[in-house]
Structures are given as C-alpha cells and as structure tokens.
Amino acid sequence: MYYNALGEKVSRARYREMLNAAKNRRELIAAGLYGRRELAKMGLLTAGGMLLPKIGLSARARTPFAVTSQAASPMTRSFVDPLFVMPQAQALPPFRPLNPAPTVAPNTAAGESRTRPHQALTQFPPQKFYYVTQHAIQATQSPDLPVQTLWAFDDTHNACSPGPTYVNHYGVPILVRNNNRLPPPDQNGGFGMPSVTTHLHNGHTPSESDGFACDYFEIGHWYDQHYPNVLAGILSTHPGTGDINEALSTLWYHDHRVMFTAQNTYKGLVGYYLLFNQFDTGSEDSGFRLPSYPQFDIPLVFADKVYDPTTGLLFFDLFSLDGILGDKFLVNGKIQPFFKVHPRRYRFRLLNTGPSRFYEFFLTDLNNLSANNPYWVIANDGNLLPAPVQVTSARIGVAERIDVIIDFTPFAGKSIYLENRLNQINGQGPVISNPNGTGATECNCPEILPAGGGNLLMRFDVDTDFVRDESADPRTQTFYQLPQVVAPRVVRTFKFDRLNGQWSINGQFMDCNDIRFHVSQNSAENWILTNATGDWTHPIHIHLEEHQILSRNRVPPPLPIEGSRKDVSQLHPNERVQLFFRFRDWLGRYPLHCHNVVHEDHAMMLRWEVVPDGTGDKVEVP
User: Domains in the chain, ordered, with CATH?
Assistant: First the structure.
C-alpha cells in the first residue's frame, strides 16, 4: 500500500511521482534556488506566484492542495517515548560575570550586532545573566527514525530543542547574551538560515531587545537582550508599579529572522519563558494557588513535522508557499509521547509552534468515545482570564497559547488522550463546515472530527497513587480584571490579502526600511483587522502590547475564552476583528504579522514604530 501525507491510498505510480517531485525540490533547495525571485527567473512560478503544477517538480497537476502531493513520512509507533520536560534555563553564577560586560551602547568592537542603545538597562539593571549559544545538536524524536540534526539553545548547562525554559519573576530584570554558533549554510541539511534574531514572544520588551525580524546577526556574532520583567504602564499610566491587570504568565521565545522564521523555528529554535509574581506564584500554597511548578505545571510545545519517506530525516518543503502541514505530531520534541500523572489537578501550558496548523484540543477516552471530558481554560496567550472557563475543547492557531487545568482524579488507573479533532487538510486553515448547505462561510464554523478520529497527540497514564493536592478548585477562582477601554486616538485598518502570489497587508509586502505608521507613546488606538480572502485563516500577532478583542464582525466575540487580553488573534475568512490597544513605556520599531510563519516569510508583515508622546501620525490605512 502507498499513502500520501493525509493517509489516503495512492497508486504506486502516483507515489513514485510524489517521491520524484520531492527529490527534485530538494535538489533545487540544495542549490540555493528556493526564493521567489530565483523561482520566477527560472520560470517555475505561475503569474499568481504559485509553483507550477509541473510533473517532476510540484506533483500538483492533479490536486490544488500541496499536502495531498506529499508522500507520507515513515511509519512511527505511538506512545513509546516518555514526555520530555524541558529543563529550567540556568543563569550564570555571580562569580562568572559576562565578559565583556554589558553596555548601554552596542559593543560592536567586541562582536555585538545590536545597532541601538538599551533604553532601560540603567533604570532596570539586570539581576540575572544568561549566556546562550545557538548551535546544531543531534537529537532523537522517535526510536523509529534516525537521529536528527536540530538547532538548539544551549545555556551552558542544557542543549536541547525545544530550548530550556526560562523561569523568572516580575521585578527581577535579566539580560540574555545570545551567541550565533550555527553551522554554515552548506551544512544546514537543506533548510534553515544561520542568521538569527531571538524574539521573546509576548514580552513587554524595549524595541532593541524585542527580536525584531530585521535585527538579525550572523555566525560568530552575539547580541545582548535586556528583559526588564516589569508590568506595562510602569513609566506612564501606573508609575512605579505598572498595571497588575496586565501581568503576563506564559511567554515563549523563538527565532524571528525575516524571511526565515518558518525554517529556523521548524529546525528547533523555540522555547518557553514563564513569569511569576505575588499572585501567580508557582506554588499552590500561596496566591492564586495554581498547581505548583515544576511538579504539576507542565509546558507543552506542539509542532507537526514531515520526514523524508526515503531517509527518515526531517524535511521542510520550501516550495509549499501557502503553508506546511506535517503528518507527525510532536510534543516537546517527541512524536506522540506518553506522560505519567497522578490523580490530581495539573496545569498544562499549551503552545502551538506551527508552522501552519491549528488545533482543537479534546480529552478523549478511547474506551468511552461518547463521553465529554471537560477541563478548565485559565489563560489565553500570556494572560490569565478574569476567571476560569470550563470547556470540552479549545482551539488555538499558530503562536497562540492556552493554560488549562486538568483534574485526573476521575481517570485514576486509566489512560486518556489529548486529541486534536480539528479537520485541516492544507495551509489555508481549518476546514469550514457548512451546516446550511448554502456555500457561505459567515459562521466560520470549523469542521470537528469524531472522537478517536482526529490526531492523538499524547497519552496521559493516570496511576492510582493519590498525592497531596492543595491547588484551588477552578470553580472558586478569579484572577485579574480586564483593563479599562478608553477612546482611541486613531482607528487604523489592515487588510490581509493575497497579491501576486505573496501575502500582503494593505496591498504591500514587508520591507525592513519601510515604516508604515507611527504610534504616539502613551496613547490608545483601535486596530481593525480584515481578511479579504474567503478561504484562509490568519493568526495575527502584534508585538509589544496585548490587545482586547472588541468585536468580531461588529458583534462581541462569541467565545468566552476570548474575553481576555491577547497577543495573537485568529482572523477567519471574510472577517472583521476590532482590537483595542494601549502603547506605553518603550519607543522604537515593532512588527505586525501573520503567524502562519510561511505567510510571514512571504511577506505578510509590516514595520511600525512607537514615537515620543504627541508625535505619532493618524494614518488610518497604513
């Protein structure tokens, strides 16, 4: 039997055609001919910017969806590897300071690639220092596949992919020195650009430390990033303290190099960054009494990947210009792991790293498929909700996160599965169901697969050993309140569309030197996101500040878990979403982009800047 990546049977001739097309694409990639300009010069792109449906290259002549032209990855067994829990990142000991010492001005003479001075290094001096190297490692993602060459973060104690988990606290500023020690392009295994910039996703971070897409640095160079770990508004609306209602908890870091974010994150440059404070303390004996870190508070990194059907090596198809779906599902770098838990409450932080897949998470009991197994969502992206919301499923797009509380007490002595039941067959986004049969997609209702018919991502094995559980019952909890919405200084509109085969915002592509608009420091704005395409879903991410969703198609958002502060919002087909922002504390350049990272790289991103109070513009359609 021969199969494509969707598990569909194909003929032997069709399978050989897919293998041959993949082989030819790999040869073009190895020759460095994978950019749109190079492909256009070779006559391999259509007028619309699509790879020609040419036999021996794309194998798309018979189907509009690239994933159906992709041969299945090699067979792997499920639930044979235990869950890998990323180690905690280790700061340098006091007796080993950074050399050379950090400076406000860029230390270019010593090899630093930063181009702008630190805004807050003296005001919020670092109390902890990290020395991190990005380099290639050998890792096993399944016992049924060869050892893989991945790119990883190494803090001198832990070299792993996903990278070590930073655990920090508000009021404790830190500085991270990132060193680029990646192999040269001719040793990259076919994809990945050894030119990097690390973005602390969702961080309230000065521009020069944000990991802006155009602040990349090369092999042999380094970059100091200063994370003040202060609450938004500390220099403006809430002087000296910041607004506790804007406290963050679940952040992550990843490579953000312009045009190569998809490849470099797919290759392994991702990790978690957790923030605690006097309420979300990391201990179930104090504050909000959430399950204690690290015993019962577990970060989970989800990614779907493709492996070459002949070699078993990790493969990134640079010619899938619309989005990439994998047929192997990894959690914390392992294919479909298992995790042993006690019959008690756990906090799980769920992060979708893409490249292009959305997830709808269910708890599935394979021995009782008709059962609805509820759990609690307590946070959306980096922000705790005003109060926990009980659900039977929750959906996230690329770069979104949810924190959930699962009580395993009812499952003592059993196994239960985390299952993705969202039907998605290509990079467009989830399949939209149409219960009325009208052809309309106004409801944007995703197609949900039956229990047991989706992707079993990981298995929880619940033992019968009851242990102490002092965490609070989610039914009784409340967290922070939403900040007050005020009148905006300006309302801006952004249209996400497809133009000449590339992904555009207001009809333009990303240009590192093009500042599309200027935001006044200490001001409020409304942004309206519109999706001009009828069949694509875009997860839209805005750096620096979180937003609140005011409306979807001019009505309040229907999902209770969207009553929150977010840094990524799903923009569904033919949809209009209105957001509220406050911009405070820092100046400088930041991006807005789609976080389907293939769209981001081709080139659905723009640059905007925060400028001193009162000097911003009022451009309504940047």
Answer: 2-69 (no CATH), 297-476 (2.60.40.420), 490-611 (2.60.40.420)
Contact 49, 35 (CB under 8 A): no
Single out the residue of 353, 302, 306, 301 nearest to residue 325, CA to CA: 306
Beta bridge partners of 274: 167, 250
- Partners of 299 in the β-ladder: 349
Tokens 């504050």 belong to: 287
239-243, 384-388, 439-443: least confidently modelled range: 439-443
DSSP conformational letter for 485: P
Half-sphere exposure of 162 (CA within 13 A, CB side): 30
φ, ψ (nearest 5 deg) of residue 166: -75, 135
Span 293-309, pLDDT tens digits:
999 999 999 999 999 99
CA distance 396 to 126: 34
Q: Label residue 25 by pLDDT band (50, 70, 90).
A: low
Q: How many CB atoms lie within 10 A of CB 505?
A: 24
Measured CA distances, 306 to 16, 399, 438 (Å):
17, 19, 35
Cβ atoms of 419 and 588 closer than 8 Å: no
Token pair of 529, please?
Answer: 């996101």
Strand partners, 433: none
Three-point CA angle 486, 492, 498, nearest 5°: 140
Cβ contact 496:533 at 8 Å: yes
Instruction: Report the phi/psi class of residue 620: left, alpha or beta, with left for phi > 0 and alpha for psi in -120 to 50.
Output: alpha
pLDDT of 86 > 50? The answer is yes
Of 562, 552, 550, 554, the C-alpha closest to 526 is 550
Residue 64: CA atoms inside 13 Å, Cβ hemisphere, count? 2
β-sheet with 538-542: strand ranges across: 515-520, 605-611, 588-594, 538-542, 568-571
Q: Give the chain's end-to-end CA distance (angstroms, integer).
A: 53
Helices marked H in 144-288: 261-266
Residues 347, 388: contact at Cβ < 8 Å?
no
Q: Cα separation of 420 and 591, whole Å?
A: 30
- Can you tell me the distance from the alpha carbon of 393 to that of 402, in angstroms, rounded to the nearest whole number? 11
**Longest Cα–Cα distance in the chain:** 69
The H or E element containing residue 498 is strand 490-499
Please answer whether residues 147 and 137 qualify as being in contact, where contact means their C-beta atoms are separated by less than 8 angstroms: no
Sign of the CA dihedral 369, 372, 373, 375?
positive
Other C-beta atoms closer than 10 Å to the C-beta of 333 total 23
**pLDDT tens digits for 465-489?**
899 999 999 999 999 999 889 999 9
DSSP string, 195-235: -B-EEEET----GGGTT-TT--B-TT-EEEEEE----TTTT
Say which range, 17-31, 91-105, 331-345, 465-479, has the weakest mean pLDDT: 17-31
98-101: Cβ within 8 A, 24+ apart: 98/129, 98/131, 98/175, 98/177
